[in-house]
Fold this sequence. Notes:
Layout: E1 2-5, H1 9-22, E2 37-39, E3 42-49, H2 70-93, E4 100-102, E5 114-120, E6 125-132, E7 139-141, E8 166-167, H3 173-176, H4 179-182, E9 187-189, E10 192-198, E11 204-217, E12 220-234, E13 242-245, H5 253-256, H6 258-261, E14 264-268, E15 277-281, E16 291-294, E17 305-307, E18 309-314, E19 317-318, H7 324-329, E20 331-333, E21 340-342, H8 344-356, E22 363-364, E23 374-375, E24 383-386, E25 388-392, E26 396-399, E27 406-410, E28 413-416, E29 418-420, E30 428-430, E31 439-443, E32 448-452
Amino acid sequence: MALSFRFLFSSSLLLLSLLCASNKGGAHRYLKPKPNNVIDGRPNLNVYHKAKLCPPHDHPGTHKAYVPSHEEILRLDQDRVDSIHSKISNSNAIAKDSTTLPAKSGAILNSGNYFVTIGLGTPKKELSLIFDTGSFLAWTQCEPCSGSCYRQQEPIFDPSASTSYNNITCNSATCQSSSSATGTQPGCSDSTCTYATAYGDGSATAGFLGNDALTLTDTDIVSNFVFGCGENNTGLFHGTAGLLGLGRDPLSIVSQTAQEYNQVFSYCLPSTASLTGSLTFGSPLASQSFSYTPLSSNQQTTSFYGLDTKGITVNGTTVNIDPSVWSTAGTIIDSGTVITRLPPDAYSAMRDAFKQGMTQYPTAPPYGSFFDTCYDLSEYPNATLPVISLLFNGSVTVPVPVSGTLYQIQNNQSCLAFAPNGSPNDVAIYGNQQQLTIGVVYDVPGNQVGFANNVCQ
């Protein structure tokens, strides 16, 4: 079995750049998201790659859309990976208690992320939020921005204009327990609970905790949703208003909507930045056939969604990898990490097997320190790629889609979209590039994660 590769990634970013540049009116500098809807009683949110946003122009009078460079995307991705590894390493040193929309923990960065549009307040104000399975707290920038706010697409949320907004008080249980979601102890200002979260690249958000009506679809409204109202925010959030945490914490949207959706959600990430995926709360549709693997019992990954990796195949042949490689540090699945990171020995063995299936194509130079296996496929628009599959506990096999096998740097340089960890003790990370077009369902009470192929384009 093999995959046919077509050049999609760079061309989709170029298309978005041209579309953004053509919107020269100040009121519409982004591609307006489609309304969220309900499918079989489940709220379904549209998912977009954050490159679909056209942020406010960096230079007045220009209409050039910001398109992040590959180097910037990959550098931020490595920062995020380093932060995840650091968080897991630090957690081991100190004992701790353990609807469909059209598609961080404290120190974790955003990089090649996806966003959804939600409504907040009464009357509702639409906001674009990066969704992240490695984050816990939902937060958005808020007026009056007493410190500083970065530029975003929609008007900044003003809690004083919402009739359903309330501050979280300092002596409340919500305030006292918020440190698990933010990574820092809460503060108190005029009887209102305050929070702060710092990111590894210097990005940060600080403000106060409040609750308000959260609108997922016109018929799915969550009352008293707790979130962070950021009045002092800096960082590389590319025009979005903030973050929507889907992690394993009482303050994540997954836990706060447990009564409505039973702590089950699923998503499908689109193959290119010009297409739309989905984020659905509640059980997946019966018509979608998922294969489930248990969440890992590895104590190093309990803050994240951990998986037990059993191996890798290339074109159906099992790659020779010592099983102890996977158990040493464990594996997590993460919607915010772009490139899948593997233990060094596992990466080397998989890469060598992949190269054996690519001998008919000319090689290209490595791309910096990010990718060591690259090809010039400029004369081979329908190149046939070896199929890489990840094997998980429960006899679950997940093929990597063609759109997630190679990362196209330029027309004559396409690289194997995996990278080795720096140490065999670093947790492996199943990144979003390798999840494209795959339906992924997180069933928290069932203690399992499910996969289905070709759920979206």
